[in-house]
Amino acid sequence: MDALWLRLRRHWLVLSLPTLQLVLFGLLLQAESRRDTLATLALLLASGLWGWLRSLRRLRAVADTPTARIASAAQGYAELRGRGEPFGGQPLLSPLNQLPVLWYRLVTERRDSEGRWRHERSEESDASFLLVDASGECTVDPEGAEMLVQRREVSVSGELRLTQWSLLRHDPIYVLGDFHTQGSAEAGFDEAARMRELLEDWKADRQSLLARFDLDRDGQIDLREWELARAQARRQARRERDAALALPPQHQVRAPADGRHYLISDLDPGRIVRRYRLWAGFHLTVFLGAAAALAWYGQAHGLPR
After folding, report:
1. Which of 44, 50, 36, 47 shows the shortest CA–CA distance to 6?
2. What DSSP character marks residue 249?
3. Residue 73 DSSP symbol
4. Is residue 140 within 8 Å of 266, Cβ to Cβ?
């Protein structure tokens, strides 16, 4: 049993759930004890159920969220479509071929003595890029996103195999995530609160407060002088508010804080839905198969129900 868990831990970090389920199936065929067989079947059952429910949630998120335009999208969970552009006009350089990209994932594998490719390391860019549609542009932060990207390049050199997935400039990009706007659309500026903050800061530095507002130089701030300070704080707060409202809107998409699915892809939404539907069917098959195998195994070996 300990050997089983060590092998699973080694695979879990580098393999997707479907691949892990295939590994479990291989372990099931090699299981030599009743305990290992039951443990593997239980893991297949649990992974099938979890994968099925996860695929259904993701399918519903893509299918049920309407596509919005960047300039008029509501704040919160949103679906956007457009083309990719480098942030600040400066694209990343691919570590595979030094060509400009918006995002990349690079997987390095090494050939072992038996001729099989073994995962060695993975690296993925985390730099933001732009999504542009006819109404505007927004910054896309890829951190925490599931990346469904179809462009793949493979390079083999000696005992190493490098596989890179990438997004390029002008690629069609689909994003489902948390949409947030700052700037002229930001309604969170509290002028009264900012005025109070300024007055508290000025009071904390008494010497500067006296130098600015102690008109009769008696070392005290009387009522008339305090009203002068309040008026000055009010004017400064209004200037800061006007400066904030004058800024152009800055849109951003990021991972939702509530844990909802964050997806970036160069696939059409219809293809994404079909992919999740296929994965849901695959995981349901794994779940039902594992449940049937557990029932058969229990009956064949006289296990208590």
Report:
1. 36
2. P
3. P
4. no
